[in-house]
């Protein structure tokens, strides 16, 4: 049976909603505790170190439900900064529309994009104690050994499992940085890029899209959840 475009979209939204419950856990799995990477660190070691750091943050009560957004943002900046290339991700989210933005607007979008992620994922903090384990698979490299994909399985205490794949690239300093995540078959980078393109069609101005990104993203999340629940 061939699915209609609408049915495909509903199916994707339902998969996204299923993963949403542990989306914070997915993001925090990247946390590396601010530790500098050794030049010889492999992509698997980067992700595994992130998980170990996450466990320490939970055990030490540093990461807790109900913590203020500004504290979570500061923690995210400290922990994710060494391993996630936010400027690169933000540029990819803007896509071709980034050519219409000034350098100041691009820099502003990096900060706004990170803050919107914090607002989004902070909603899942109440499920933080549901994380049981993260199993890291073997990295698959491209021919030039400059990019790698690391598969993982997030398991919750209730038995639910989530497939998450991390895409990393090797920067000029020979450090592996995360540039995208595919969660339950959903390409997170592509989702945000499509959102930016959609907002551009609405506002016709890159500055307005950047300024309204957080509000527009939150409204779209609520609409998607409502569709999945209906």
UniProtKB/TrEMBL annotation:
Keywords: Signal. It comes from the Bacteria. Pfam families: MlaC (PF05494). InterPro entries: MlaC/ttg2D (IPR008869), Tgt2/MlaC_sf (IPR042245). Residues 1-38 form the signal peptide. PANTHER family: INTERMEMBRANE PHOSPHOLIPID TRANSPORT SYSTEM BINDING PROTEIN MLAC. This is ABC transporter substrate-binding protein. It comes from Motiliproteus coralliicola. The lineage of its organism: Bacteria, Pseudomonadati, Pseudomonadota, Gammaproteobacteria, Oceanospirillales.
